[in-house]
């Protein structure tokens, strides 16, 4: 899998409503040492994505109540997984369900 051996996810996060104040930037995640064809490797890749997204979106002390952080984090995780496009990572990633607000 040479395609993934030196993978670094470089991703510009576009400004949009609800994103944390780190709206534009680049995220790099080193995965060159990860075997993406194994379940353990897929989990490790997702863990590294989690750490990078939490840092990029600046996880607040009020986590998980901070909606702007959560929107930034969820969008970035989805983009990182899509950019990598590794079958086991895709299968291991569980995208959060959208939050629906009810009417009174």
How does this model look, in words?
The protein is mainly α and 104 residues long. It has one domain. It has four helices and two strands; from the N terminus they run H-E-E-H-H-H. The chain has helices at residues 2-5, 39-56, 67-84, 87-92; strands spanning 11-12, 26-27. Strands 1-2 form a two-stranded antiparallel sheet. The longest helix is centred in the middle third of the chain and has 18 residues, at 39-56. The protein is globular, with a radius of gyration of 15 Å.
Topology:
Layout lengths: L1 H4 L5 E2 L13 E2 L11 H18 L10 H18 L2 H6 L12
Antiparallel strand pairs: 1-2
Helix pairs in contact: 2-3
- Structural class by sheet pairing and helices: mainly alpha
Q: What portion of residues is helical?
A: 40-55%
Average pLDDT figure: 76
Q: What strand order characterises the main sheet? A: 1-2
Q: pLDDT under 50 segments (min length 5)?
A: 1-22
Keywords:
disordered N terminus; 4 helices; 104 residues; 4% strand; mainly alpha; two-stranded antiparallel sheet; single chain; globular
In short:
With 104 residues, this protein is mainly alpha-helical. The protein has helices at residues 2-5, 39-56, 67-84, 87-92; strands spanning 11-12, 26-27.
């Amino acid at each position: 899998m040479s395609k993934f051996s030196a993978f670094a996810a470089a991703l510009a996060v576009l400004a949009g409503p609800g994103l944390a104040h780190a709206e534009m930037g680049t995220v790099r995640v080193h995965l060159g040492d990860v075997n993406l064809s194994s379940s353990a490797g897929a989990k490790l890749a997702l863990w590294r994505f989690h750490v990078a997204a939490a840092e990029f979106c600046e996880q607040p002390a009020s986590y998980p109540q901070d909606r702007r952080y959560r929107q930034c984090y969820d969008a970035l995780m989805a983009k990182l997984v899509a950019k990598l496009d590794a079958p086991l990572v895709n299968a291991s990633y569980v995208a959060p369900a959208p939050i629906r607000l009810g009417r009174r």
